[in-house]
Specification:
The chain is α+β, with helices and mostly antiparallel strands. The chain has a single domain, classed as HIT-like (HIT family, subunit A, 2-Layer Sandwich). It has 3 helices and 5 strands; from the N terminus they run αβββααββ. The protein has a 5-stranded antiparallel sheet, with helices on one face. A hairpin with a 7-residue loop joins strand 2 and strand 3. The two termini are 28 Å apart. Bound molecules: adenosine monophosphate. The site of adenosine monophosphate (AMP) has 12 residues, from loops.
Length: 126
C-alpha cells in the first residue's frame, strides 16, 4: 500500500516550469493558479509544491510547515480574489480524490470557486 505519486502529471510539469500557468499566488510551499477551464467567475487551483497525490496523502505525510503554508495560502487567495466571507459573498472549496472523487490530475489541488452561487453540492453521478 502507500500513496504512489506520478511525476508526469500536468501539475508536476507546471511546478517544474515545463508548461506555463496563470499564477495568482506563490509561497514557499504552495502555488495557486487559474484553472484553464473556469467553472465560475473565480476558479483558482491551489497546490502544494511537494509530491502529494491527494488531501489524505498530504495530511498524512506533509510537514507541519507545508500544511500551515498551504492552509493559509488557500485563505489568502480567497481574500485576494474577493470571495472571502470576511466582507464578501463566499466560495466553495473542492478537493477531488481518486476514482470515486473523479480526480483527473493526481497531484493534490483544491478548487476555489466563487463569484456566483454554486448550486447543489453534488450532482447526479456521471
Ligand atoms: P480534478 O478533476 O479535480 O482533478 O480537476 C483538474 C482541473 O485541472 C480541471 O478543472 C482542469 O480544468 C484543470 N487543469 C487541467 N490542466 C490545467 C492547466 N494546464 N492549467 C490550469 N488548469 C488545468
Amino acid at each position: 500500500m502507500g500513496y504512489a505519486y506520478d511525476d508526469q502529471n500536468i501539475f508536476a510539469k507546471i511546478l517544474r516550469g515545463d508548461i506555463p500557468n496563470s499564477t495568482v499566488l506563490e509561497t514557499e510551499h504552495t502555488l495557486a493558479f487559474r484553472d484553464i477551464e473556469p467553472q465560475a467567475p473565480t476558479h483558482v487551483l491551489v497546490i502544494p509544491k511537494g509530491a502529494y497525490v491527494s488531501y489524505d496523502h498530504f495530511a498524512a505525510e506533509a510537514s507541519d510547515a507545508e500544511i500551515i503554508d498551504y492552509t493559509r495560502a488557500i485563505a489568502e487567495v480567497c481574500r485576494m480574489e474577493g470571495v472571502s466571507i470576511d466582507g464578501n459573498d463566499g466560495f466553495r472549496l473542492i478537493s477531488n480524490a481518486g476514482a470515486h472523487g473523479v480526480q483527473d490530475v493526481p497531484h493534490l489541488h483544491v478548487h476555489i470557486l466563487g463569484g456566483r452561487r454554486m448550486g447543489r453540492m453534488v450532482q447526479p453521478a456521471g
